[in-house]
Design goal:
Length: 224
């Protein structure tokens, strides 16, 4: 499966940091320069940098630029052992999401600014529009869940979700192929976004749990 544009940039930037080409504390090229270098859009670069910031690999300082983390061991993630789970079952990864994401949704409802809640509603609309024209809605789906993680204002939990999301990328595409799953996901996304906008933490938690449990049930049903 071909990598998404921002995933390709993330991989290449991590290699440059790990090799020492970009040392801790160094300021990176501008987004425009990175886009020209990798021959990809500024939007893809911006999304890649946002993910790298969530993983604490870079620091985005508005008005100053983007800097490599001062921690030289940051790429030796304490959860790096999870990277060996490539062969782990989709069910195991969904179970991991079931542990983390409902609480992220609850924290997001309690802590996220109203602008972030409105963005979630916009992402639910975008996913529905992409599906209506047969477009690729995978990136929007991932961004919806990552936006909730950002709104929870807990970098450690957001990092845990990022690791799980990296491992389950192919599995999420496979899940989308299950009958009616994308349509159901859009419905859940909209309801979760509304609960977050209305600051209903318990409701947001319950809906996210139901969303992921629904995927677990569908996967179990597909292998019977």
């Amino acid at each position: 499966m071909k990598k998404l544009a921002h995933e390709e940039i993330i991989e290449k930037m991590k290699l440059r940091i790990a090799s020492g080409d970009w040392k801790p504390g160094v300021r990176l090229p501008t987004m425009r320069q990175l886009a020209e270098h990798y021959k990809l859009s500024i939007t893809a670069v911006r999304e890649a940098l946002r993910v790298l910031e969530t993983q604490r690999i870079v620091s985005i300082e508005h008005g100053r630029g983007v800097f490599v983390s001062n921690d030289p061991e940051i790429l030796d993630n304490p959860m790096v052992g999870l990277k060996g789970m490539e062969e782990g079952s989709l069910l195991q990864l969904l179970e991991a999401r079931l542990v983390v994401e409902p609480e992220l949704a609850a924290y997001c409802a309690a802590r996220a600014p109203s602008s972030q809640a409105k963005r979630l509603l916009g992402l639910a609309d975008r996913m529905e529009q992409e599906m209506s024209v047969g477009g690729n809605h995978f990136a929007t789906d991932v961004l919806f869940h990552q936006t909730i993680a950002d709104g929870a204002n807990n970098p450690l939990l957001a990092q845990m979700l990022s690791v799980i999301a990296d491992l389950s990328a192919q599995g999420r595409r496979d899940t989308d192929k299950l009958p009616n799953m994308p349509e159901k996901a859009v419905g859940y996304h909209r309801l979760i976004a509304i609960a977050i906008e209305e600051r209903q933490a318990d409701q947001a938690r319950s809906l996210m749990k139901a969303h992921i449990q629904d995927m677990i049930n569908a996967v179990k049903g597909s292998v019977r």
